[in-house]
Every structure is written in structure tokens, then in C-alpha cells.
Write a structure and sequence with these properties.
heterodimer; A: alpha/beta; FAD/NAD(P)-binding domain; five-stranded parallel beta sheet; 8 helices; B: 118 residues; alpha+beta; CPE0013-like fold; 2 domains; five-stranded mixed beta sheet; three-stranded antiparallel beta sheet; 35% strand
């Protein structure tokens, strides 16, 4: 039987775990994290490359290692969490409705909530590429999950659209796993990825980076058979007269991340212009007692900064609860 | 022989030109000594961190793929061989984060270690 926690945290990734630990440190005993996945750590679990934790731990860790350190701290502090427990709805009075694989249907009434649901990837639908809709078009993060957690191949002949860090990291990962990454196309005249990733993920493997280039059409009926690439003009419009065809069986999209705000905006929380949850200087949303941290507020470059903001949100939520007594 | 090297020590990303003149290596374009040291190594024997996954035998854990990393940088030229090696490895015991998965991988002097608890 799950009893009402004082503080409920939605999401057990880097933001949620940091918030829980800091709320405990600030004097809140009664905390519960609800996590929809079968494990804690969120997206860190599939980010098996290094580059995490330089600020927090002063070490160059992989995603699973970084998540593991936080999990250890959670164990030490005995912070309770429920896995496989998606939150279905949040009401403006902070009632939380969730469904748990082990506990069944839950209706909880916490004194405060921390929103730590992270973000999701922009998909093919949101960027409107012309052409057919065959199998083999997937986001870079989905491919990462297939390869690093589930153990499936994502494709053999691959074109990647978008040169953000996830796209670059996946170019290397796919190459090392035997795929042929034909090119990375980037709409903008400059890559948004870190120099280190351009060198170590593309140059190391002679993968061409095509700047000011986009996918003008996707070909294939059952499975992707190729894409049409085209340079873009200064208004980012494809110049079709200069387009060319590249045969491939997979198109990966690494075209940006969107804060996962729906649960909270449905409850009435205001959204900032950049699509994240709108928060005040104490990380409280427009709903009293609902706090936000991490990528649901703003998409961060570094996990270390997500953890920092999680810590702050946990502390402010604790102050809110203790002040209300 | 000369080579253009993009420094990855910091986000500034200097372009360093390395030219071998007889026994000596001439480096230009680095903004700091760390960049020079990086370029020297990059010219002679570039090193990289290696990460991958290895399979976990049935019944050991809910995790079917264990993330692994090299305990330190390894020569870039063996990255593909290490990836091949990881496809062969099957973990048959309950490892903890930091435990050695493959000792002295391919004789390079660096271990592959577990990145998560099974």
C-alpha cells in the first residue's frame, strides 16, 4: 500500500534523483519518486559514451556510471521510488493519478511536486520531410536505445540528419558496430555539436559532415531505399536543382529536443516561450507547490547542470513544504 | 609529413599544424601547452576512450547488455578490434560497476570495466 508522500517527484532521471536527495537533506523524510521506465537514470542509461560528471564528480564518466553514482546515494538515503509507474494525470490541487505495475492505480495527494520528466526528441512528423513513410526512419535516441539497451542493429547504410551531439555520437556508435554511415547532413552552416565530438565521432572515421544541407525527400515503400539530399539557400530552403540521391536503408534524425511538459500544462502550468515549463526564481511553476527542474524547464547541454537545478528544486520544494506547516 | 589537428582539450578547438622536420616535430597554432601536448600525441599515436556494451548471459540480471568502458585512453587504431572483441564477450557473473570485464584488452595494457551493476 502506497501512502501519501509529502513530496512527490515525477521522473527518476538525473533531475529527479538530485531533487530527491537534496529535499531529503533539507529535512523532508517522506519522498516518493514515480518513474515510468523499468529503471532509474532516464536517458543516461543509454548514453554509454563518456563526457558526464566533469563538474559534479571531477571525473569523465559514462552515462550509466553517472546514473549509478546517484542511485548509490539514493540507496544510502533510502529514498523510495516506484518503477514502471507512469503518471496519468495531475490536477491543479496537486492530486496525482498514476498506474503502477506492482501497486495498481494510485491517487496521491502530496504537499509539493517536482516535475522532472526531461525532454523528448523531435520526430519525423514535426519536421515535415517530403516523401514516403517507410520503416527505417528513426530518431537518433531511439537508435541509441535499440543498440545500447536492447541489443538490436538500427541499420546498415545510414544517413544522419542533424549534427547535434546525439547525431554525432550515434555516427560513431553505428560505425563501430559495423554500419556504414554515409554522411551527416546539417541544415545550418555550422554544427551545433561539440568540437570534441566532430573530431572523435566524424573525422576519426572519415564520415563527411555536409553543412547547409538537408533531406529533401525520403524514398522507399516498405523500408527506406534512399534519400534526396539538397543544399539550402540563405532562407534554409532546399535548392532542388542541385539535389542528389544517396542510397541508404536508414535515416536517423537528430533534429532537436522538446521539453516533456504535457502532464503539467494539462494541469494548468504555464509554458515558457522556448516550450519549457515556466518557473520563477525559486523554480516554482505557475501552480503553487509544483516545481520544475532539468530538461522539462529548458533543454540543458550538460547533465551536471541538470543535477544542479534538480538540487535547487528539491531544496525549494522542501522549504515550501516546511514553511507551510 | 604534416597534419592539421583540431584540438579537443577545451571548447576553443584550436587548429594546430604539426610538421615533422627530421627528428623534430614543429607545432603551430596551439593557444596553450596542453594543446601542444595533445597535438604531439595526436600526431604520433592518437588515443581515445572506448565504450561499448557486452552481452549478459541469461539468468544473471534483468540487464541484457552491460555497458563497458576502457579504464583509460586506448590507441585509436584498435577501436574497431575492441568493438569486435565486445561482440564476442558474454558476462556470466554478477558484476558491479568498476569490475574488470576484460583484463588487458587485446594486450593494449588497458582493462575494459563494467559501467553498471548487474
Amino acid at each position: 500500500m502506497v501512502k501519501n508522500p509529502e513530496l512527490l517527484i515525477v521522473g527518476g532521471g538525473s533531475a529527479g534523483m538530485a531533487a530527491a536527495l537534496s529535499a531529503r537533506k533539507s529535512g523532508i523524510q517522506d519522498i516518493l519518486i514515480l518513474e515510468t521506465d523499468p529503471y532509474l537514470g532516464g536517458v543516461l542509461r543509454q548514453c554509454i559514451h563518456t563526457g558526464f560528471g566533469l563538474q559534479t564528480f571531477g571525473e569523465d564518466l559514462t552515462g550509466p556510471e553517472y546514473a549509478g553514482r546517484y542511485q548509490d546515494m539514493m540507496e544510502e538515503e533510502k529514498i523510495p521510488y516506484l518503477l514502471n509507474t507512469p503518471v496519468l494525470e495531475i490536477l491543479p490541487d496537486l492530486t496525482v493519478l498514476a498506474i503502477s505495475r506492482t501497486e495498481g492505480y494510485l491517487e496521491l495527494h502530496p504537499k509539493a511536486i517536482v516535475a522532472a520528466t526531461g525532454c523528448r526528441e523531435r520526430s519525423a512528423g514535426t519536421i515535415a520531410i517530403p516523401g514516403t513513410r517507410p520503416a527505417g526512419v528513426l530518431t537518433a535516441g531511439t537508435a541509441q536505445r535499440y543498440i545500447n539497451i536492447e541489443g538490436y542493429h538500427a541499420g546498415r547504410e545510414v544517413v544522419i540528419l542533424g549534427s547535434g551531439d546525439i547525431g554525432l555520437i550515434m555516427a560513431r556508435r553505428l560505425t563501430l558496430e559495423g554500419a556504414h554511415v554515409k554522411c551527416v547532413a546539417e541544415l545550418m552552416p555550422k554544427s551545433g555539436g561539440l568540437t570534441r565530438n566532430i573530431v572523435q565521432c566524424l573525422e576519426d572515421f572519415d564520415i563527411p559532415l555536409l553543412l547547409s544541407t538537408t533531406v529533401a525527400e525520403i524514398h522507399g515503400k516498405e523500408r527506406v531505399t534512399g534519400v534526396t539530399l539538397a543544399p539550402v539557400d540563405e532562407n534554409l530552403k532546399p535548392i532542388l536543382e542541385k539535389s542528389w540521391y544517396v542510397a541508404c536503408d536508414t535515416l536517423l534524425l537528430s533534429v532537436g529536443l522538446v521539453p516533456e511538459t504535457e502532464l503539467f500544462s494539462a494541469a494548468g502550468a504555464e509554458i515558457e516561450r522556448g516550450n519549457g515549463l515556466k518557473v520563477d526564481e525559486k523554480l516554482m511553476t505557475s501552480i503553487p507547490g509544483l516545481f520544475g527542474c532539468g530538461n522539462v524547464v529548458k533543454v540543458h547541454d550538460l547533465v551536471d547542470r541538470v543535477s544542479r537545478q534538480g538540487e535547487l528544486a528539491g531544496r525549494y520544494a522542501a522549504e515550501y513544504i516546511l514553511g507551510g506547516k | 609529413m604534416e597534419k592539421k589537428i583540431t584540438c579537443t582539450v577545451c571548447p576553443r578547438g584550436c587548429t594546430i599544424l604539426a610538421i615533422r622536420e627530421g627528428e623534430k616535430l614543429k607545432l603551430t597554432g596551439a593557444a596553450c601547452p596542453r594543446g601542444e601536448a595533445y597535438a604531439r600525441e595526436e600526431f604520433t599515436d592518437p588515443k581515445r576512450m572506448f565504450t561499448s556494451t557486452v552481452r549478459v548471459a541469461e539468468g544473471i540480471s534483468e540487464i541484457t547488455l552491460l555497458p563497458v568502458k576502457s579504464a583509460g585512453p586506448v590507441p585509436k587504431r584498435i577501436l574497431f578490434d575492441l568493438a569486435e572483441l565486445c561482440r564476442e564477450v558474454m558476462v556470466t557473473e554478477t558484476l558491479k560497476r568498476g569490475d574488470v570485464v576484460v583484463q588487458n584488452a587485446l594486450g593494449c595494457g588497458v582493462d575494459l570495466i563494467a559501467g553498471a551493476n548487474l
